[in-house]
Design a protein that fits this description.
The protein is of the alpha/beta class. It has 9 helices and 6 strands; from the N terminus they run ααββααβαβααββαα. Helix 1 runs parallel beside helix 4 and helix 2 runs antiparallel to helix 5. The N and C termini lie far apart (53 Å).
């Protein structure tokens, strides 16, 4: 069934309203923290040396080049574009999702669809900009019909992800959802039980939280997500 222009416009309007509602709630949580006298933890991370950032960008280039010719699993046959990363390679904070979706596959950039728009608003609510963080996924090709990555697919991309993390060497990794957390923790997890908890990954603090797509389906979880983001801000500001 073909959607009419009116239906498409209405759907887009509803999406903007959903995102704005969640973002406004996150801002209210910030204001509540400030009113409680904890505004000192709500400040962006300190600036970094540009020379160091440029070096990391150069080190990531051969990794990206290898990804752009990858044939390690069958997903390369069905994808439109490889999706490597977005943001600052010198960032102290890395967000890791599970896999590209349709919008990401078309644009070759992670987190640009509805969930990506919400992630951007979450980042802004933290007092940062999207270009201040580094964003990537466990796997670099879109699975058919946006299904979850298969274990073999995640394993095929693991070296790429580890190289990205090793080069960037962030202060905090935020795993968005169950599959991202499992890829780094190496075990099956229940995101409802581990979200907001601190783990250690190769000397880096790792904090899982809900995927933005989950938050779109379950807006009532936004307060829990803010608690997780607040913990990340505090670590970055320490």
């Amino acid at each position: 069934m073909v959607n009419t222009r009116k239906e498409l416009t209405s759907s887009a309007g509803n999406t903007r309203k959903e995102l704005t509602s969640i973002a406004n709630d996150l801002k209210r949580y910030i204001e509540a923290e400030r009113a409680a006298g904890t505004a000192d933890i709500l400040s962006p991370a300190r600036p970094r040396a540009a020379a160091s950032d440029q070096k990391k960008a150069r080190l990531l280039e051969p990794v990206k080049k290898e990804v752009l010719s990858c044939r390690r699993c069958a997903l390369y046959k069905t994808k439109k574009n490889y999706v490597f990363s977005d943001g600052d390679p010198g960032a102290p904070l890395v967000f890791i999702g599970e896999a590209p979706g349709e919008d990401e596959d078309i644009q070759g950039v992670p987190f640009v669809g509805r969930a990506g728009q919400l992630l951007t608003k979450m980042i802004e609510a933290m007092g940062l900009r999207r270009q201040d963080v580094y964003i990537c996924n466990v796997i670099k090709c879109r699975p058919p019909n946006n299904r979850a990555p298969l274990p073999g697919e995640a394993a095929a991309c693991r070296d790429y992800l580890l190289s990205q993390i090793g080069i960037i060497s962030p202060k905090v990794i935020c795993c968005l959802g169950k599959h991202a957390a499992e890829a780094l923790l190496g075990t099956e997890v229940f995101i409802t039980k581990i979200r907001g908890k601190e783990f250690e990954f190769n000397g880096i603090t790792l904090i899982p939280t809900y995927h933005p797509a989950y938050l779109l389906r379950n807006p009532s979880a936004k307060k829990e997500v803010w608690q997780d983001l607040k913990k990340i801000i505090k670590i970055l500001s320490g």
